[in-house]
Amino acid sequence: MSNNNHYNSPCGFAEDLVSYLYGEIDSAEKTRFERHLDDCSNCGKELAGFGFVRSSIGDWREEMFSVLETHKIEIPYIEKQTFVKTSVNSNDSLSWLASLRNVFSLSPTWATTTTVFASIAVLVGITIFALNFSYSNQVLEAKIIGNTSQNGVNAERVEIESANQPEEKDRTNLSLAGEKTSENNDLKINKKNSLPEKIVAEITPKSIKIPKNSRENKKPSDKTMANTNINPGKNSNTSKSGNIEVPKLTNFSEEEDNSLRLADLFDEVGSK
Amino acid sequence: MISNLSDEQLVELAVGENPEAFGQIVTRWERKIFALCYGMLNREDEAKDAAQETFIAAYKNLAKFRGDAKVSSWLHRIAVNQCLTTKRKNKSRSESFLDEESNEQERVFVAPANLSPLRKTEQNERLLLIRQAVKALPIDLREVVIMKEFEEMTFQEISETLELPLSTVKSRLYTALKQLRLKLERSPIEVL
What we know:
By secondary structure, chain A is mainly alpha-helical.
């Protein structure tokens, strides 16, 4: 042990003295210091005095401090736990896109590929449908297929196909109530949606006669056809056979009285 | 088993937000840190608060812990700084008030019952004297005495904790012991 520090030590063994006092001295230093103690009464007195001080401090520690309980140390772990909890909750608030990515990140490659192709097919289908829908707005077609029963109009069915609105792109069935609802025996067609520009009406009566005075109200409108009336009239007995294909009636807007020609046609067919 | 890990390994776990690891550190060192604070501050209630603040400060600064020092040295350094902060706060209070409080605590001490009445009196006086003598030491000398006598730390550990040369630690301890001896010699109690 070096003796370069002579602070408060008259003989220069201050560090060796405290090292010896606390037993932290190697054997060589210990032998050397013990030889010095034989010759230095001052270091001997100090060593004894320091021993008494240590004993007093030890008593103080044992008698007063050792009886004191160690107080419970409370560490506020909550702050970091809150942080962890917040991190976990952030997973719950992932956007739907992130959630979708998570799902696909766990899926096998074949599933991902299949899903991609399916999505492409759906998109192509929607595109083709939209193109057809647009085209059908330009080409209007009306078709009436008559199919009536022998006894009247209970089986009459008018099918109106609308291509004007997406809801009406398929055929819209309009049922004819086979009841007489007014004095002139008109049948009322219940129609839920607005009228299309193009009407395809399938009427399958055995015999149907459209009175002359009702023709004016039957003119198709570009916008509405809420009060379309068809009067089967007295012609139910004019039909003698069922399931007669009625020629298509088009050009309702013609000013000619088509009802007469239709009646004549039915009579002609019936006579056959 | 977490109790078998070293302090440094426990700190690594605690940095990874493992409360159990830091709890193990607290269990290992709370008594010694409390002893250091008690020796430095000489008051149980203040020592309790200082020890509490020491571990809280350590927990909050776990990420700043450098591996080049021992965990024990790091904790003791925080404790010494905490005690110095407490003493600075106490300076605003009157010294007489502190002395009255100290006397109140000192009267609580009772010598062991197996001693004769004369020895009991001498024992009480000696303990009172050494306590006052330690309290009167400069803080740089007192912390060395407390670490050595209350903590039973080695000179090397004190050197690392206080970031002082080894020779300085020994010199300070020599000076502190000499001053304490002189105070005890002036008392009527017999000193060797």
